């Protein structure tokens, strides 16, 4: 040993340690094999409990996080599906009527805003002298007549010419009294030939001529003219009109900027001098909202 160098001593030490560890392992294994069953069971329980207490903590945390994320996603999807179903009977497709009173060419979408079936539509597409047919989501065609218009707001108001069972199946939208928040999830609901949706978020607000407009993060296609902008709870936030299109391709006018109180209508001398509530629906009269 005295003649060994420093490096040789280190190697000898490592060799001895290695041999010792192997011998210890062999002896331990032999003893455990010869030991009573009760002893080995106790040792196994200690090892299992130690592993249970130390290893699974991170695994359980990750699993819980994944479950939470899945639950949030499912809840949001269910909420959106419910909001769409809630408004399926709250809008109609307006068509021009031919000589027989049947639907002819598609004009625009109309939104039901009152329990009596009052429909609001973009005035840019509605002619005071034309006849129209409203088609419900169930495909039932109902002849409608213009009962009012709002020149300042750019909206026209229509009602069924006579009582119709299809009208009773229409449900007015619920206007959201609150201003949406930046980043809030919204859904555009509309479509010319068939109903479609566009999901997005609110990205901005603007004011013009005393009216509020909402900006979204998606361009609105031409087929969505007159479409509703609803919250994930199904409440109406805005409507796509020609005036909102002038402001921007991704702009909706606030639903709260649309006047609905037709009791305040002033009639001209050609229409009537009575209140709008008594306006006969079988007479084509056009009045203006103040």
From TrEMBL:
Under the heading InterPro entries, the entry gives: Peptidase_S1_PA (IPR009003), Peptidase_S1_PA_chymotrypsin (IPR043504)
Gene3D superfamilies with a match to the protein in the record: Trypsin-like serine proteases
Return the protein name. Serine protease
Upper classification of the source organism reads:
Bacteria, Candidatus Tayloriibacteriota
């Amino acid at each position: 040993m005295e003649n060994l160098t420093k490096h040789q001593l280190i190697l000898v030490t490592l060799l001895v340690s290695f041999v010792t560890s192997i011998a210890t392992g062999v002896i331990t294994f032999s003893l455990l094999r010869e030991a009573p069953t009760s002893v080995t069971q106790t040792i196994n329980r200690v090892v299992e409990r130690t592993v249970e207490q130390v290893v699974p903590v991170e695994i359980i945390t990750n699993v819980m996080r994944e479950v939470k994320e899945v639950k949030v996603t499912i809840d949001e999807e269910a909420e959106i599906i419910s909001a769409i179903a809630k408004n399926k009977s709250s809008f109609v497709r307006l068509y021009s009527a031919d000589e027989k009173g049947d639907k002819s060419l598609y004009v625009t979408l109309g939104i039901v805003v009152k329990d009596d079936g009052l429909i609001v539509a973009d005035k840019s597409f509605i002619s005071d002298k034309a006849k129209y047919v409203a088609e419900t989501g169930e495909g039932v065609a109902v002849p409608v007549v213009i009962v009012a218009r709002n020149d300042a707001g750019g909206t026209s108001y229509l009602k069924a010419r006579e009582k119709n069972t299809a009208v009773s199946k229409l449900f007015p939208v619920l206007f959201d009294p609150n201003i949406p928040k930046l980043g809030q999830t919204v859904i555009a609901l509309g479509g010319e030939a068939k109903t479609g949706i566009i999901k997005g978020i609110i990205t901005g607000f603007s004011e013009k001529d005393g009216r509020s407009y909402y900006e979204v993060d998606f361009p609105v296609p031409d087929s969505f003219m007159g479409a509703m902008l609803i919250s994930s709870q199904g409440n109406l936030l805005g409507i796509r009109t020609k005036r909102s299109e002038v402001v921007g391709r991704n702009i909706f006018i606030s639903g709260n900027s649309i006047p609905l109180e037709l009791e305040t209508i002033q009639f001209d001398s050609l229409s009537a001098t009575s209140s709008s509530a008594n306006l006969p629906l079988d007479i084509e009269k056009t009045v203006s909202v103040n």
